[in-house]
Design a protein that fits this description.
Blueprint (H helix, E strand, L loop, with lengths): L10 E6 L2 E6 L12 H4 L23 H25 L7 H23 L6 H25 L2 H23 L7 H28 L9 H31 L7 H29 L1
Antiparallel strand pairs: 1-2
Helix pairs in contact: 2-4, 2-8, 3-4, 4-5, 4-8, 5-7, 5-8, 6-7, 7-8
Length: about 290
């Protein structure tokens, strides 16, 4: 199963034409600052204090309602795409190859669209919604296959598990049990890059050597890396919440709520896939 989030360079804030907007991080000067968005971001949270001052109100600024609305649109598109794929692309013996082929194609298209948006300075709603639609097709086929060949209850358990992780991280963030600092950001980025590198190596061994490669996707190691993947997803959720909090606090333009929705959707997809894989391994061991 695919488990990748191409937006490893989370978006930071900088002054741009009088307001605080999202800019891809790291930017110029990041090399001398350890490629850390907190070093080039005048609005970023510092280690020594947590509260941030509120910027003056500005018309057309992003609000929590904007983020919720855009996130509902993107997640709703993912769910709709998944439901249609589940219904129209059965994974029975007669259609398995065709359904898998379409799912892999949809995953590649979603990945390319996400990369295009990640390198754009401003959000493009059509790109984000298209990404959500193709990602939904991929998730629908994969979920249908898990339900058919492993167990019908695994998919619902993965959905519930993803919702629990989201709620748990949100509560922990609001209660300030999670502090998104420079050290936290650096740790998450390093861990995520290491995780993805191991998964790529495992994939290469699986392609050229057959079987499950180095065993990172099954058995005891699969369970361990599944847990690590979910924890990384939870860490990315905290970064997403910080992004939203800073955007609202510093008057980012309303259109930037699409970027917040994009990041949240990608992170939730990551968590769902890792949760689905972990539960599949556990169900297979029963």
């Amino acid at each position: 199963m695919r488990s990748s989030n191409p937006v490893f360079s989370r978006r930071g804030f900088s002054r741009d034409n009088g307001y605080a907007g999202f800019n891809a991080a790291p930017q110029a000067g990041a090399a001398t600052a350890g490629a850390n968005p907190y070093a080039t971001n005048p609005y970023a949270q510092q280690d020594t204090q947590y509260g941030v001052p509120q910027a003056p109100a500005r018309s057309g600024a992003m609000t929590i309602d904007d983020v919720v609305t855009r996130t509902a649109i993107t997640l709703g598109t993912v769910v709709l795409g998944a439901a249609l794929a589940w219904w129209l692309l059965p994974v029975d013996s007669a259609n398995l190859g065709k359904s898998y082929g379409i799912a892999i194609g949809a995953a590649l298209v979603a990945f390319v669209l996400s990369l295009i948006q990640s390198f754009k300075r401003k959000p493009v709603p059509a790109l984000i919604v298209a990404y959500a639609a193709f990602e939904g097709v991929f998730l629908g086929v994969i979920s249908s296959a898990v339900s058919t060949y492993i167990g019908p209850g695994v998919v619902m358990q993965a959905v519930m598990g993803t919702m629990c992780v989201f709620a748990g991280v949100l509560v922990a963030y609001k209660m300030r049990w999670i502090r998104v600092t420079r050290r936290f950001y650096g740790f998450v980025m390093a861990a995520a890059m290491g995780f993805m590198l191991l998964m790529m190596v495992n994939l290469l061994f699986a392609v050229f050597g057959g079987g499950d490669g180095l065993g990172f996707r099954s058995g005891g190691l699969g369970i361990l890396f599944g847990v690590i993947g979910i924890i990384l997803g939870a860490c990315f959720l905290a970064l997403d919440f910080k992004q939203v909090e800073d955007g609202v606090a510093y008057g980012a333009p309303r259109e930037e709520s699409w970027l917040a929705a994009f990041g949240l959707t990608m992170t939730l997809v990551w968590i769902y896939l890792e949760m689905l894989r972990l539960l599949s391994i556990l169900s297979g061991d029963d």
